[in-house]
Amino acid sequence: MSRKVSKSEASFNSKRTGITEEQFKLELLYAQQIKIDKLEKIRSNISKIVWVIAIMLILSILGVLLQYR
Description:
Layout: H1 7-15, H2 21-67
């Protein structure tokens, strides 16, 4: 029993029918590098958000402490 293949998958497969194993590995490596770069950008953005929240929290605590002085 074969599964249905979407148009985009069929197009993807037809473009890659004649590639060598080396070309295939290079495509995999390229795709993996793109994912790594995107994940690094996400990690960097999350780190910045955490620092902003931490600074705001510290300033809020200092504000409350100085108000009751």
